[in-house]
Amino acid sequence: MDELEELRARIDEIDAKLVELFEKRMEISHKIALYKIANDMPITNDEREKEVLNKNIARLKDRGFEPKLVEFFSMLFKLSKEVQNEEFKKQTKYQ
Ligand SMILES: O=C(O)C(=O)C[C@]1(C(=O)O)C=C[C@@H](O)C=C1
């Protein structure tokens, strides 16, 4: 295998793990939506988002990636809240 092929094979392995974890995160976010609906809570919790973001920034070995990680988590929160919003809409439709 030449170098590019090898590097792409490593990216493919990482992507497979990312997809698995992404799907798990979204499923848990969906469960959180059900809890929030049952307990009359809002979708967004800015404090929790800050906490999650800071905890994960602290895990970086190379702080140069911090702006990229901030973007990555902003996208995760956005998609997570979209999943929750879809559930909220479903539940309020027939009430
Ligand atoms: O922890 C929550 O309350 C969630 O709904 C999960 C989550 C997340 O995706 O991490 C999503 C929305 C909130 O604004 C905060 C965090």
TrEMBL record:
Residues 1-88 form the Chorismate mutase domain. Residues 4-63 form a coiled coil. InterPro entries: Chorismate_II_sf, Chorismate_mutase-related, Chorismate_mutase_GmP, CM_dom_sf, CM_II_prokaryot. One of its GO terms (molecular function) is chorismate mutase activity. SUPFAM superfamilies: Chorismate mutase II. Gene3D superfamilies: Chorismate mutase. One of its GO terms (biological process) is salicylic acid biosynthetic process. Keywords: Coiled coil, Isomerase. NCBIfam families: CM_mono_grmpos (TIGR01805). PANTHER family: CHORISMATE MUTASE (PTHR38041). This is Chorismate mutase. It comes from Tepidanaerobacter acetatoxydans (strain DSM 21804 / JCM 16047 / Re1).
